[in-house]
Amino acid sequence: MKASELRDMDLKALEAELLEQRKAQFNLRMQKATGQLARPDEMTRVRRDIARIKTVINEKMQAGETS
To answer: What is the pTM of this model?
Structure first.
C-alpha cells in the first residue's frame, strides 16, 4: 500500500488496516514456523506496510486530526 493512499484515509480506517496487517503478519509468522511459507518476501512487505501505517497515524495525530 502506498503512503499517499494511506494519507487519504481517516484514523479509524487506518487503525482497522493496521489491525488487518498485524493479523497478516501473525499468520505469516505461523507459516514460517511450520515451514509452509511460500513467499518469504511477503513478510517484508507486510512489515513495511505496518511501518507506513504507523507513520501516517503519527503524522495525523501530530497534525491534530481526531476523526
So the answer is: 0.89
